[in-house]
Amino acid sequence: MGGPRFIKNQVYGWLLLMPAATLLVAFTHYPAVATLLQSFFSSGTARRPSKFVGLDNYAYMLEDPVFWKVLTNNLWYAVGTIPTSVAIAILMALWVNERLPLRGVVRMAYFTPTVLPMIAVANIWLFFYSPDIGLLDQVTRVFGFHSQNWLGDPDTVLACIIVMTVWKEAGFFMIFYLAALQSLPHELEEAGRLEGASRWYFFWRVTFPLLMPTTLFVLINAVINSFKLVDHLFILTKGGPDNASSLLLYYIYEVAFSFFDQSYASTLTVVLLLLLALIAVGKFTALDKRIHYR
Q1: What is the pLDDT of residue 246?
Q2: Does residue 280 form part of some domain?
Q3: Where does residue 244 rank: exposed (0-12), middle (13-18), buried (19+ CB within 10 A)?
Q4: Which residues pair with 41 in a beta bridge?
């Protein structure tokens, strides 16, 4: 068992694993550990070197009203985007999975927002939301409504960002559901028809449970996406007005590159990573028993 052939296979296996492991350590594990360590130090300058401060950065974070504001915004943003994007993605996948005319064109139309650059998407929706000259104001004016500064009103700006995100992400999630639907055996649908099951009953009792592995994958990606929005905010609102549209990652970007407080930005990053890890563990724990693997 410990002969030359066994050793050769072990070395060969580790050599195959080495490139991926090196990239994983260099760009994932090492930055995470370095960020955690930096969160326990103060931000150093040329005249005042960094020093160990323990949990002072975390204590300051708990007293930071902007942090709680952007965290609340992010939670509302996640609640608004994740269920809506997933539900629309399932509906679109069910629709384009049917035999309908120009099915390929419809699929392409649904998927097109996904392949557009983020900056282009932000500029398109900036035109939609612009007061007076924007497309949305042009449409609402026909029905007698007054002009509205959609991105300048704290009551509407976050909802506008949510609508834009759903428009961009639903088509991306649709691709996964479409692939999952096409892998389901057709015998199940034929058996359902013979038993007289309605389309809604068949979907809820048969199709949707079989889509749970895909749903878990989509939910994890949707959660990650909901906490990593920066580009659109930079073009549309820059977090305003009064941090009404600022999200956690954008706040980290501001703290690190506008306020040059690397230590506090590291503290916020650690909290973001812990939050994502807890959500992921919770989802795997809650949904694992509901998943039907074939």
Answers
A1: 93
A2: yes
A3: buried
A4: 52
